[in-house]
Write a structure and sequence with these properties.
By secondary structure, the chain is mainly alpha-helical. It folds into 2 domains: about 35 residues; about 220 residues, no CATH class. About 85% of the residues lie in helices and about 0% in strands. It contains 9 helices and no strands. Helix 3 runs antiparallel to helix 4, helix 4 packs across helix 7 and helix 4 runs parallel beside helix 8. The radius of gyration is 22 Å and the shape is elongated. The relative contact order is 0.15. The model has no long low-confidence stretch (mean pLDDT about 85).
Length: about 270
């Protein structure tokens, strides 16, 4: 019993110091990024290459997920509200939910799983094979050449992917509303346009900017601090996906609360 308690204390202490180390490293890397963001040279080709990797190659995955999400939400809300005679409110509820929450959060989680792990494994591989040391030896900043292009590409691609996911999700919702709930497409579109405001889209896109920053910086930091050879690369990939997902869910709550207080200050 004493041995188990001692081991538990050791594990908790190790996790605490690991979290503290990550927090400090995240802050230091962020400071380096802001210092070197506007300094030449600027690697435009690397940003475009990362845009392709992050944005273009994620379109199919985002489209399938958004279509399924919109369809499932419509079925759940439709049959749930039908018990209370509120089936006609489905277009309004689904549209608000997708634009404010489901679109930004689900798209960011997908990107964290696909791109966050990809960035971490790529940078970690460069670290364990000493390519980053070679970049420094040539007088080039790894922050400018490795971190900043990936960060900029993520912050450009993720809001665009979110808008695309919103559209596909609403399209799937409209199809299910017509085929399963008997709601005409014209009525669906009219209610969506009546309900949505620019604020609903902008808040969702702003959230994805914050999520993209967390995903890219977390992945780059872990990659730059990977140790232990190929096994360390695998561990870093798993760690980045879990940590980025936690960041997304926690920051989503606080951002939502902030936006609610901005619009409804007496709420």
């Amino acid at each position: 019993m004493i041995a188990h308690a001692r081991q538990f204390s050791v594990d908790m202490g190790s996790r605490f110091f690991s979290a503290l180390r990550f927090s400090a490293g995240f802050g230091l890397l962020s400071a380096q990024i802001f210092r070197e963001l506007f300094r030449p040279p600027f690697y435009h080709k690397l940003v475009i290459e990362q845009l392709y990797q992050i944005g273009t190659r994620s379109i199919l995955l985002v489209a399938v997920t958004a279509l399924a999400t919109g369809s499932v939400m419509t079925l759940q809300f439709g049959y749930g509200l039908a018990r209370f005679g509120g089936k006609l409110y489905v277009p309004k509820i689904v549209a608000l939910t997708i634009l404010r929450e489901m679109g930004p959060v689900f798209t960011s989680l997908l990107v964290a799983g696909r791109i966050g792990s990809g960035i971490a494994s790529e940078v970690a591989s460069m670290k364990v094979t000493q390519q980053i040391d070679a970049i420094r030896a040539l007088g080039t900043s790894p922050i400018q050449r490795i971190v900043i292009p990936r960060l900029l590409a993520a912050m450009i691609a993720l809001p665009i992917l979110t808008v695309f996911a919103d559209f596909i999700g609403l399209f799937g919702s409209m199809i299910i509303s017509r085929t399963e709930l008997g709601i005409h497409s014209e009525y669906f579109v009219a209610k969506v346009l009546e309900t949505l405001r620019g604020y609903d889209l902008y808040t969702g896109m702003f959230k994805t900017l914050v999520f993209a920053y967390f995903i890219a910086v977390t992945a780059c930091w872990k990659g730059l601090n990977t140790e232990g050879g190929t096994r360390g690369v695998g561990d870093s990939t798993t760690w980045v996906v879990v940590t980025s997902s936690i960041f997304i869910m926690i920051s989503d709550f606080f951002l939502t609360k902030l936006f609610i207080l901005t619009v409804y200050p007496k709420f």
